């Protein structure tokens, strides 16, 4: 009997299922220094990228593996989100409609469950035995300043006052010849707030980082789950059962029981290491080299033949740009529905903008000012605000997922003199290639009204294209055209 979605409880179960679906490719003999990263990058640019599992990495024994491309197409993302095993782009978007809000509401019913032990406890390294380079950590890009063990990671922190748990995908560079790792957390993220509060309270902050796991943990750690909702509980709502965790021996923080590799320790305000540069999700080495908080690692938990989950960013499309586009689109759509905005038809966060910088919103216009309202709302939503640059609002005859159609609407329906609003000093990022070194992480964004003028809806020129009914008729007559 084959593997089913219900059987997937860890990364190995996920790999077994995607292998049965013909979605996995094993590559042997790659070097950790650049070859894993370059092969992954070539793969992302294929029309149907595979999940790549690298084994027999140069200098490492068989079984010490690295996975990339885990969710770079609709089918594998559908598997990861437990929505189905044979979804294409359109079916995945439809299946996700309203799901993020449902998962948020259900999360308290699927709170992480503490267990005594799990596969991650097969090996526990302490003291002089701690060596992160025992795993085949890649140097992903030619311009990277080191080897990055945390790209597909989930960094777990907690609020010192409430105990609220957060998991975020913050990059981690190997430091001190494998004895520690820096944790690069953007200042506005929940994890950074937790760390600052711990520093103020006790002078140090507990932290756990899972470095290989069910890719679902990367999804929830890498998207903006609302504050007050634990990403671990949110993941439980997605799979329909609580995530099993063991308690860290040092910090007491939850550790995913079926994870492949987990590090546990402390951050101190004066313990930093130079970090970077790194190929960012914006497509540039834009972050430079900065002192970054670095873990005092006290425990490394790992399974036999552990698998490192890689998700390196870079010039789009990159490892997780498809996943982020789909998840951000669904979350922004649900957030707009929650505002009461009428006439919403669709939302798409385009991969070309890393799933953040370029958002297209489709509406059926109901009143004068409706399109501008939709754009301004979108640009300010918590789910959309970070590092957004462009919000483009289009009519309901334009597919927001098609960049060609969106640009066509801009060219034919936008009057730049009065259809573009610019908002300054908004929430940017230190990795923005336009930001001056040392300057605050503001950005500027534009809301572009690419809808037909409301007062001309009836008289605006008719689009010169075949009707949907006519297209369906000729496809039925000549199926090979589709």
TrEMBL record:
Keyword field: Lyase
Keyword Lyase appears in the UniProt entry: yes
E.C. no: 4.1.1.-
Annotated 3-octaprenyl-4-hydroxybenzoate carboxy-lyase-like N-terminal domain residues: 17-96
Domain 3-octaprenyl-4-hydroxybenzoate carboxy-lyase-like Rift-related positions: 115-316
Any one GO molecular-function label of the UniProt entry: lyase activity
Domain 3-octaprenyl-4-hydroxybenzoate carboxy-lyase-like C-terminal, chain residue ranges per copy: 322-450
Signal peptide (UniProt feature, chain positions): none
InterPro entries: UbiD, UbiD-like_C, UbiD-like_N, UbiD_Rift_dom
PANTHER family referenced in this protein's UniProt entry, alphabetically: 3-OCTAPRENYL-4-HYDROXYBENZOATE CARBOXY-LYASE-RELATED, FERULIC ACID DECARBOXYLASE 1
Protein name: UbiD family decarboxylase
Lineage: Bacteria, Bacillati, Actinomycetota, Actinomycetes, Pseudonocardiales
């Amino acid at each position: 009997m084959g593997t089913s979605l219900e059987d997937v409880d860890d990364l190995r179960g996920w790999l077994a299922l995607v292998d049965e679906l013909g979605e996995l490719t094993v590559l042997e003999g790659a070097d950790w220094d650049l070859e894993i990263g370059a092969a992954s990058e070539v793969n992302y640019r294929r029309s149907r990228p595979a999940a790549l599992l690298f084994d027999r990495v140069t200098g490492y024994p068989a079984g010490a593996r690295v996975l990339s491309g885990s969710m770079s197409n609709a089918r594998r993302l559908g598997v990861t989100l437990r929505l189905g095993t044979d979804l294409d782009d359109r079916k995945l978007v439809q299946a996700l409609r309203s799901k993020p809000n449902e998962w948020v509401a259900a999360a308290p019913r699927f709170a992480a469950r503490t267990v005594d032990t799990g596969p991650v406890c097969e090996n526990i390294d302490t003291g002089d035995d701690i060596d992160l380079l025992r795993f085949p950590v890649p140097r992903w890009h030619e311009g990277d300043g080191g080897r990055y063990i945390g790209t597909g990671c989930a960094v777990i922190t907690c609020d010192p006052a409430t105990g609220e748990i957060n998991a975020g995908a913050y990059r981690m560079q190997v430091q001190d010849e494998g004895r520690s790792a820096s944790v690069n957390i953007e200042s506005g993220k929940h994890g950074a707030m937790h760390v600052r509060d711990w520093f103020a309270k006790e002078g140090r902050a507990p932290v756990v980082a899972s470095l290989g796991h069910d890719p679902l943990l990367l999804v929830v750690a890498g998207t903006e789950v609302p504050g007050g909702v634990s990403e671990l509980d949110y993941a439980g709502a997605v799979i329909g059962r609580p995530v099993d965790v063991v308690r860290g021996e040092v910090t007491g923080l939850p550790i995913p029981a079926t994870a492949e590799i987990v590090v546990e320790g402390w951050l101190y305000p004066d313990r930093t290491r130079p970090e970077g540069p790194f190929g960012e999700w914006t497509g540039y080495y834009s972050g430079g080299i900065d002192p970054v908080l670095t873990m005092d690692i006290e425990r490394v938990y790992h399974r036999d033949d552990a698998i490192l989950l890689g998700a390196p960013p870079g010039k789009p499309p990159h490892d997780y740009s498809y996943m982020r586009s789909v998840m951000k689109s669904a979350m922004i759509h649900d957030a707009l529905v929650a505002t009461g905005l009428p006439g919403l038809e669709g939302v798409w966060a385009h991969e070309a903008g890393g799933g953040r910088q370029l958002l297209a919103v489709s509406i059926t216009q109901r009143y004068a000012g409706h399109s501008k309202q939709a754009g301004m709302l979108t640009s300010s939503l918590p789910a959309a605000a970070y590092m957004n640059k462009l919000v483009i609002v289009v009519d309901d005859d334009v597919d927001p997922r098609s960049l060609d159609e969106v640009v066509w609407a801009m060219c034919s329906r936008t009057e730049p003199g009065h259809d573009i609003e610019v908002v300054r000093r908004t929430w940017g990022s230190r990795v923005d290639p336009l930001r001056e070194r040392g300057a605050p992480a503001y950005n500027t964004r534009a809301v572009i009204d690419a809808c037909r003028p409301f007062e001309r809806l009836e008289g605006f020129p008719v689009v010169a294209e075949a009707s949907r009914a006519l297209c369906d008729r000729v496809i039925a007559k000549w199926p090979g055209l589709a």
